Amino acid sequence: MADRAEMSTSFGAAADAYESGRPEYPREAVDWLLAPLRGDQRGQARALRVADVGAGTGKLTRTLVEAGAEVVAIDPDPDMLGALRRTVHGVPTFLGTGERMPLPDASVDAVTFGQAWHWVDPEAASREVARVLRPGGVLGLIWNTRDERVDWVRRLTLIMHPSTAETMFAEGGPEARHPFDAFEREAWDWERPIARSAFLDMVSSRSYILTAAPDERERILREVGELYDAVGGGGPVALPYRTEAFRGIRP
To answer: Residue 8: how many CA atoms within 13 Å on its side-chain side?
Structure first.
């Protein structure tokens, strides 16, 4: 099995599958992350400035832009940022990580991590986020997780193996680290209609599958396809999701 570092940087090889298979983020969840800043914005002409870290192909970046933010996208993988530039136009992109961002001190109103905080060193990343945030700024963490309260979704996870994020949630979720002494938490339940090809892309873009041996990857994709066919009966499947969001405020 691949180590954590290899898994965290494996996504660029499957950037197109990631873009096809991974879900968007609900707008209401992104609005909730930014809500503490909206009151402070009254009377200001400028948009909120947000650094989207671990931006990948731009799944969260798009929704932040739609919410009116001025966004810079940061990711350690140039292939993922290349995919982002093809789909989200006009957003500056930078190579970097949660522990090391190419941004000046106190330069942004919010730093967001979509499906990404579980890959960072939380203590080092918290210090770095605090450096680039203005006082009163928001650290926003968000994950789209499949709703395993549904039986066939639990079976899907057994076939694919739990992800690093799913393991983190099973252990209680992300922990706040200084100077973010507490997180507020909110969740949203929703469904995503998904075709078979996108369903397989969702599976094949996961770090465990990307770093698995070829025969293991082939077995997983075959069994996942069989499960999709059994659930869908020849039509699109409604895949239930639960979006979990966390926000902390910089003192």
So the answer is: 18
Q: How confident is the model at residue 6 (pLDDT cuts 50, 70, 90)?
A: very low
Question: φ, ψ for residue 42 (rounded to 5)?
Answer: -60, 130
Burial class (CB in 10 A: 0-12, 13-18, 19+), 45: exposed
Copy the structure tokens of residue 159. Answer: 């076939």
Reply yes or no on domain 4-147+163-191+240-249 having CATH 3.40.50.150.
yes
Q: Which residues contact 43 (CB under 8 A, 6 or more apart)?
A: none
Q: Cis peptide leading into 174, omega within 30 of 0?
A: no
Q: Tokens at residue 166, please?
A: 């799913």
Cα end-to-end distance, the chain, whole Å: 40
Taking the alpha carbons of 97, 177, 133, 138 in that order, is the dihedral positive or negative? Answer: positive
10: left (phi over 0), alpha (psi -120 to 50) or beta: alpha
The residue extents of the domains of the chain are 4-147+163-191+240-249
The pTM is what? 0.91
pLDDT tens digits, one per residue of 22-69: 999 999 999 999 999 987 555 565 789 999 999 999 999 999 999 999
DSSP string, 185-226: EEEEEEEEEE-HHHHHHHHHTSHHHHTS-HHHHHHHHHHHHH
Residue 128 corresponds to which tokens in the numbers above? 């770095």
